[in-house]
Amino acid sequence: MKKQILAPSILNADFLHLSKEIDIAEKGGARFLHLDVIDGVFAPSISFGANIIYSIRTYTNLFLDVHLMIENPSQYIADFVHAGADSITIHAEGAIHLHRLIYQIKGHGIKAGVALNPATPISLIEPILSDIDMVLLMTVNPGFGGQSFIKEVLSKMTMLSHLKSSKKYSFAIEVDGGITPREALWCSQQGANIFVVGSYIYYKETDSEKLQAMKNIKKSLGIGDSK
To answer: Distance from CA of residue 192 to its chain's centroid?
Structure first.
């Protein structure tokens, strides 16, 4: 996960035509598909569950980046693994036994990530940074698409990147929330390499506008195929 990766989020996609929305992600050169699972308890709003992820898995070979914003995630890890998740990211704020949960995920042979809300300090996860594959920094408060980027998270990104470099950790740094080409560039400059983009792509009216939005993000990150 060292290269810059665009990960379209389907949270704001048209679920009546979800296969078409996935086709757009593939055509636009995405490598990951970001899947936000929200239970309405850990975060406001309710999205979808393992059955939708299973349907997506049968349709695409994209890397399924599953982000759990739910209470009691340990009860559902196996369900999401069996549905086809390639990675599962859980929130540090919602995990009492974080280390155990990370190894529960890894025990299924997939990648494990930890997410932090904007106000949660990096220090909360320092003891497990050597054990995880990815840190997801939320750049909005979780629950809804279409929110504005919280610029203060950039300082956390800088701190996390410094820790990664100084300790020679190998985890990827993912960012999620309010990402447009400008914010993608800012985050890239602070060490992020996986960029979750939802409303900037899927709020567009036409397929060509959605593809152009993906092209704009890729251009800002210097990802090939952006002409």
So the answer is: 12
Q: Kindly list the domain boundaries of the chain, sorted by start residue.
A: 5-221
pTM: 0.95
Rounded CA separation 91/139 (Å): 14
Please write the tens of the pLDDT for every residue from 175-191. 999 999 999 999 999 99
Binding-site members for a divalent metal cation are 34, 36, 67, 176
Residue numbers belonging to the annotated binding site: 9, 34, 36, 67, 143-146, 176-178, 198-199
Q: In the CATH scheme, what is the homologous superfamily, with its name and number, of domain 5-221? A: Aldolase class I (3.20.20.70)
* Short-list 116, 65, 60, 109, CA closest to 87: 65
Where in the sequence numbering do the catalytic residues fall? 36, 176
Gap between the Cα atoms of 124 and 72, Å rounded: 19
How far apart, in whole angstroms, are the C-alpha atoms of residue 12 and residue 20?
Answer: 13
